[in-house]
Amino acid sequence: MPIKTDLLLLALIICLTACTVPSEPTALPPATTIPKPGEPGEPVAPPTADLPTAYPPPPRATATVPYPYPQPLPSPTLNMTPVYIVEPTNTAEPTIPRPTLPPTPAVTPIPLAHPDLADLLPAESGPLWIYYWDESQIWRTDENGVSTELVLDVAQTLGRPLGAITGPLLGTDCCWLGPAVVISPDGTKLAITVGGEALDPTWGINYTLYTLDLETGQFLDFGEGNWPVWSPAGDQLLFQRHGDLWLGELASGATQLILPQTALEGNYISELIWLNSGRVAFTLIHSMQPLPEIWLMELAHPALRYKLVAQTYDITQLWAAPDGDVIYFTSAEGSLYHSSPRRYLNVWQVSVSIGDIQPITTGFRVYGYHYYQNTGTILFSAFQVFVPPYDPPGIDIWLQDLASGAIYRLTEGLDRGIVLGWYPAGRFFLLYDSSDATLWALAENYTLRPVADGRSFHDDRQNAKFAVTGLR
Fold first, then answer.
1. b/e code 159-193 from CB counts within 10 Å (16+ = b)
2. How far apart are CA 237 and CA 320, in angstroms?
3. Are 186 and 214 in contact (CB under 8 A)?
4. Taken in order 209, 250, 67, 185, is the CA torsion positive or negative?
5. How far is CA 469 from the centre of its chain?
6. Residue-wise pLDDT tens for the chain (472 aa)?
7. CA nearest 242: which of 268, 272, 280?
């Protein structure tokens, strides 16, 4: 009986299987687009910038275009071991001369002087454009504030504002992350940095770097990047991308990675200047602290880097002579006092070829300076240390002849706050201060007059939102 029962069950299963009518396969439901929170209905297409006819959409820079510089030399470590780029005539470790400052505050004030500017400063170059901007627009005006025009509506043209350039870095309470607008040396192009669309998990903010040719209205999109630095000829641009140093060429749109951040042993590039078409100098920071070093690097061979200067104190305000053979900077090296705020900055120079370091100014607290190669003079804003009244000090404008060492005090009792920077043009010297951020000019009769009809320009001492360029 058990065998018979099993046979009956088997027959029943076969019958049920054969008699079942196959059903049609169930179709997948159509894909649905989930709208953004708070936006019911059909999804909205992302907005696109309404480009003015004068500004065609910027083409994207590419790294595949052949580039005149060869690839970096093979180096598995890319360490920071000092390597001479050019064989110096003096291979000994440079000796840093220390200026002798008076041990007691008994310094005789340098009197006011009105030298013949024709012998000490280059001839006037002509009228200027003063560029200024906010988060969405870039404007310019002449030095008299009469001719004012809108250069670019950044938010409308590029779809994103100039804002978010001042940080802070993610997880910190600092820092300035680079200028929003940088004008080329010949005044014909702008490098524009706009804030990114999303936060980067490491760096906090993404940036996009554009260049704008003011004569043709042509843009070029270099992708992510900030801290742009123009080449002397204005045909190339160095910029940083997440700490890496990149080089872009405007003619071809080519970009090339020059120096990865990993090659800097945990450091980051702080200040960078071009010495000539193929060589740069830069300083470094580590954990937000500047290092007292200046490095030289050939763009064609970035693995070869040479530590030109190593001092005790921070090095700031790098400036290169047009021939690229001398670098100027400010440092508190040699200061009588080693602690802030009485650590006084002075101007120094270092020879690129032999590494010889010499002080230019002594006995001052220098805030800003400008070097004129044609006349061999330095114009600087400073106060003379150990000269009463000590608080507040009298910040004035000074001129020094490098050949003779003669120092001229051009103003007396100027005291316009801390002078933040120089924008000289011939015999007119534009400066601004921390009180009202007004541009001023020092005329040939040594009087100050407000520039741009006394317009006040925003400045927070780290992110200047105006700049001065060449001829109109």
1. bbbbebbebeeeeeeeeebbbbbbbbeebebbbbb
2. 17
3. no
4. negative
5. 16
6. 444 445 444 444 444 444 444 444 333 333 333 233 333 444 333 333 333 445 656 666 654 433 333 333 333 333 333 333 333 444 444 454 544 544 445 678 888 888 887 778 776 666 778 888 877 889 888 877 788 899 999 989 988 888 544 444 434 444 556 788 888 988 889 999 887 665 555 555 678 899 999 999 999 999 888 889 999 999 999 999 988 999 999 998 899 999 999 998 889 998 999 998 789 999 998 887 888 889 999 998 888 888 888 777 788 889 988 788 899 999 888 776 655 556 688 999 999 888 888 899 988 888 888 888 888 899 888 888 877 665 556 778 899 999 999 999 988 877 555 555 565 665 666 666 555 566 777 666 677 777 777 677 765 545 567 777 655 5
7. 268
Say which residue the tokens 């076969």 belong to.
Answer: 14
